[in-house]
Amino acid sequence: MVYKLYELTYEEIKIVDAEFDKVLAEFGLSKVDFERMSVEELGKL
Predict the structure, then answer these.
(1) Could you give the CA distance from residue 1 to residue 25 in angstroms, rounded to a whole number?
(2) Would residue 26 be called left, alpha or beta, if left means φ above 0 and alpha means ψ between -120 and 50 degrees?
(3) Mean pLDDT throughout 17-40?
(4) Are 45 and 3 in contact (CB under 8 A)?
(5) Which of 13, 7, 14 is nearest to 38 (CA)?
């Protein structure tokens, strides 16, 4: 959610957090899912 609040792109997030794909996978999300979701939607996970 913090990454979304700061409006970081997926590529920018990967620079900061190399393990981000693993975090998404834990929630059953893909890169596309993450990019499409709002902060509010992410907060419901």
Answers:
(1) 15
(2) alpha
(3) 94
(4) no
(5) 7
